[in-house]
């Protein structure tokens, strides 16, 4: 599994882990994100159970296990958090931040040691040493209880399934040509995002933030003008319509 630093400052850094050439072709490729600051770290959407071994090997190049103090799950899907039972043994001292709505479901993945900290519908925040991260509501996109993570200093929005693209092989890290990238996103968003009202609420919320990078859980990262391009495209897209 590859690991790439996408942001670094005196206070904290962001690392994306994914594009695992050893994974099965039948498994959707996912991006996992590590944020580390001083002697603390958080993993955003740590991935499926089948990714645990390569994830752990990659993480240990950047952080000690005892410094992983928190995990975040944007929602309940297995590609997001089915590895929880293994993380529960690896980092038993950690706290899992996840939607309150999905606690009873996420616990089915196994949680005996990690503390489950439910996120209220309106969101909240967490401090990882010198970094402050905000939980941004993204309900119904596509999960009924769903959150993004926003870093106001790095100006990065970890957007979960919003902005996701499904491509074969190992695509580049960043979107380079938005128009040619649409074909990898359109069906996914029309099928998996059920509500135009929820979509528009999210767009309004995100437009109030300063976002230099939008980092989804699948596919390439949007950077600079590509963030604006995505918001404009998503605003025009009629979601929940792929089966009509």
Question: Can you put this structure into words, describing what you see?
Answer:
It comes from Pseudoalteromonas holothuriae. The protein has 244 residues and is an alpha/beta fold. The chain has a single domain (2-236), classed as Ribonuclease Z/Hydroxyacylglutathione hydrolase-like (Metallo-beta-lactamase, Chain A), CATH 3.60.15. The protein contains 7 helices and 13 strands. It has helices at 52-59, 78-81, 84-90, 103-106, 178-192, 196-207, 225-236; strands at residues 2-8, 13-18, 32-37, 40-44, 68-72, 95-99, 115-119, 124-128, 131-137, 147-151, 156-160, 213-216, 222-223.
Chart the SSEs and their pairings.
Blueprint: E1 2-8, E2 13-18, E3 32-37, E4 40-44, H1 52-59, E5 68-72, H2 78-81, H3 84-90, E6 95-99, H4 103-106, E7 115-119, E8 124-128, E9 131-137, E10 147-151, E11 156-160, H5 178-192, H6 196-207, E12 213-216, E13 222-223, H7 225-236
Domain Metallo-beta-lactamase: 29-218
Organism: Pseudoalteromonas holothuriae
Protein name: Metallo-beta-lactamase domain-containing protein
In short:
It contains seven helices and 13 strands.
Side-by-side strand order of the widest sheet: 1-2-3-4-5-6-7
Distance between the termini: 38 Å
Task: Give the percentage of residues in beta strands.
Answer: 25-35%
Would you tell me the structural class of the helices and strands? alpha/beta
> How big is the Rg?
17 Å
Largest sheet: number of strands, sense, barrel closure: 7 strands, mixed
| CATH topology category name | Metallo-beta-lactamase, Chain A
How many helices? The count is: 7
Quick one: CATH class?
Alpha Beta
Percentage of residues in helical conformation: 25-40%
Number of domains: 1
Outline: globular
Number of distinct beta strands: 13
Which architecture name does CATH use?
A: 4-Layer Sandwich
